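Hey, can you fold this?
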Amino acid sequence: MLEIKNLHARIAEDETEILRGIDLTINAGEVHAIMGPNGSGKSTLSYILAGKDDYEVTEGEILFNGENLLEMEPDERAAAGLFLAFQYPIEIPGVATMEFLKTAMNAQRKARGEDTLSIPDFMKRVKEAAGHLNVSMDMLKRPLNVGFSGGEKKRAEILQMSLLEPKLCVLDETDSGLDIDALRIVSEGVNKLRGPDRAMVVITHYQRLLDHIVPDVVHVLSKGRIVKTGDKDLALELEKNGYADYIDTAA
């Protein structure tokens, strides 16, 4: 589903190189975790996948279901089935969460040549998905993420993901700012979306998220390169021993 070949990238403004040759293949149905210390390039990779223009790809390619992802605009990537859950979801004053969801869903349906949803069908889908994530109708009426707690922001974002039904879910430190109960609810929402036709990239510092969203493959990213790949036990090793050995490997 996703194939990254020799990806090099830098910050567009000052040309600081962040990614220094990423090679990564993710098949449909797989969950890959990417772990690493601060500054290793984890969030940069997620932003490049989503098409954020703060970064410039200087070498390499990214194929998404056989298409060149780097030639697609962010909205085209979303319509093709890519979803990025941000570490810090932004607030959008004046735009009700419910209206945002309806607009996003219908925009993607239009891009795919599908009919827009009727109001009853839309409401049915939202209420069902919201119930699984403890998202109340009051939250849906409020401006998107405005005044939301950290847990509410993450639940609202996983609600978006469940309604948009992407093919590739990229979760950038979804556990950031979550207490134990919120982490469980968000993880359950993510796990409901696991399936043979969908892949996931889970970016995290910590093992605790991977106790809930158990990955098929774990990668260690250090200084812009993947320096180690293993199964879920690699995350346990990192929790026990830290990243020091891999930072030395990347030097």
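Oh, and this one too while you're at it.
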Amino acid sequence: MQNNTHIKPTFSIVTCTWNSAATLADTLASVQRQTCQDVEHIFVDGGSTDGTLELIAAYPGRKRVLRDVGGGISRAMNQGIEAATGEYVAHLHSDDYYATDDVLATVAERFARERVDWVFGSVQVLKDGELIPPYPVLPFTYRSFAAGRASVPHPAVFIRRSAFGRVGMFDEKLKYAMDIDLWLRLGQVARPATVDRPLTVFRDHAGSVSSANKIKARQEEFQVRRRYMSQAPLAFGIYCLRYMKRMRALRAEAAH
């Protein structure tokens, strides 16, 4: 039988894990169900002790496991990017899973048709066992994103691997807004294609970083957006007004 392991895959899916046995099975099953199987799956594990690594070991298909990767989530995601050999890279965390069986096929078709460097769709949130209807995907412009009007949901983003060579990877000093920082760099040089449908399901729970520390996350996001204010100063001013309103609401919420 011919060995095709040396052939570069279309997709590199990076999954960061740390004691993720409770949710990882859904993540793995959603990848296995994809109609497009031209995939390598890269697991970046932070030192799991709960059966996560055993689940990964039993997982069939083309995979690579990076063990005992410390230094935070940004570093873990970057390690996955560096290990990737596919044409397109996606981060599908162990809390998330693909919404339908044709996600990768749909994204591959969009890349081929529009010749872009990145593609994203919407995310459907799973909270308390219920799927919340997703927000529509708004047309992306740099100004609308800089103003905070348009959002780019990280679990539903696919990036041409060569684009990281142009704009860099995730800022490893950031804990919350590393994805927004990357979109602001990438959006300066490459407009994405969008898919107006849910591509990924995200579990919202008490352990989610953004849920556990919303005020710190918003403060870091503000500092990140300020880095790029010269690219769209009016849009940044609009964002500041939204930021102040949101922070007042979060502080009022925290006080009760």
